[in-house]
Write a structure and sequence with these properties.
Elements (H helix, E strand, L loop, with lengths): L11 E2 L2 E2 L6 E9 L2 E11 L4 E8 L4 E8 L9 E2 L4 E6 L4 E6 L6 E5 L8 E2 L5 E7 L4 E6 L4 E7 L2 E5 L4 E6 L4 E6 L6 E2 L12 E6 L5 E6 L4 E5 L5 E5 L20
Antiparallel strand pairs: 1-2, 3-4, 4-5, 5-6, 7-8, 8-9, 9-10, 11-12, 12-13, 13-14, 15-16, 16-17, 17-18, 19-20, 20-21, 21-22
Length: 257
């Protein structure tokens, strides 16, 4: 209950008491690509479906609420580009927004029609890719400034783009990491996972700033990385039976996850 005391019992309802406590989730972290000591994440109040976007200075431990949205459900991770804009999907209302890192200029970008679309910035200003649209089967590249939309490829989960325009994602009925150039049609599988156990399910991935290593999480089997050039796989963080591992972000200096 987050270090506070709540009066109990509350007001009676009917023959007994109904007690509500607004549970809180912290999720969707992303480092500022221009500052290794600044991370953004979502604080979600489940009872009211209120989402706060928090800016956290790791050097001073100062936390600032830069935006509050309600009702809202930011389900997947925040994304941030080098121009200082955050990108995220409100899954509850099927809308994609951008937001300046100081909390200004919340801007509607696209109607995602639901489906955990996982929007991702490209390396061009005001351009992003979005998966799971057109019936959940396609990925689009949208240039908001130019008003252009291109269908790129079939849906691939957790697509993330390097600064060299190499796209990584999760492919296959048994989850594996694959990559391709942004403008290519063909995916190249890197990892060789043969297990469909829940603990092996990939729940998030991200690039290391060296543009070679792809960091990814397994449901209850820790954090891993794979070099897309060599295929070498290394476990970065051993699993802990009391934890599940989901979305992650790597700092621009490559020293923090």
């Amino acid at each position: 209950i987050q270090e506070k005391c709540d009066d109990f019992p509350p007001e009676p309802i009917g023959l007994g008491y109904t007690y509500y406590h607004d549970s809180v989730e912290f999720k969707g972290p992303v480092f500022n690509p221009n500052n290794s000591n600044e991370v953004f994440y979502v604080k979600k109040y489940n009872l009211t479906s209120t989402n706060e976007i928090i800016k956290h200075n790791l050097a001073t431990d100062q936390k600032t609420v830069i935006c509050t949205l309600s009702p809202c459900d930011i389900y997947t991770t925040l994304r941030m580009n080098k121009f200082g804009w955050l990108l995220f999907e409100d899954e509850m209302n099927s809308k994609v927004y951008k937001l300046k890192s100081n909390g200004d200029s919340l801007t509607f970008m696209f109607n995602s029609a639901g489906g955990y679309s996982e929007p991702e910035w490209t390396n061009n200003y005001d351009e992003f890719i979005i998966a799971g649209v057109l019936g959940g089967t396609k990925t689009l590249r949208i240039n908001y400034a130019l008003g252009t939309t291109d269908t790129m490829y079939n849906y691939v989960a957790f697509s993330k783009l390097s600064s060299t325009n190499i796209l990584a994602g999760m492919t296959g009925s048994i989850p594996n990491i694959s990559y391709k150039h942004l403008d290519s049609l063909n995916w190249n599988q890197i990892t060789n996972n043969q297990s469909s156990e829940m603990k092996e399910i990939i729940l998030g991935l991200n690039w290391h700033p060296n543009d070679q290593d792809i960091y990814y999480t397994k449901h209850s089997n820790g954090i891993w990385k794979v070099n897309y050039l060599t295929g070498a796989v290394v476990q970065v963080l051993p699993s802990c039976q009391t934890k599940n591992y989901c979305y992650l972000s790597v700092s621009p200096d490559g020293k923090k996850i």
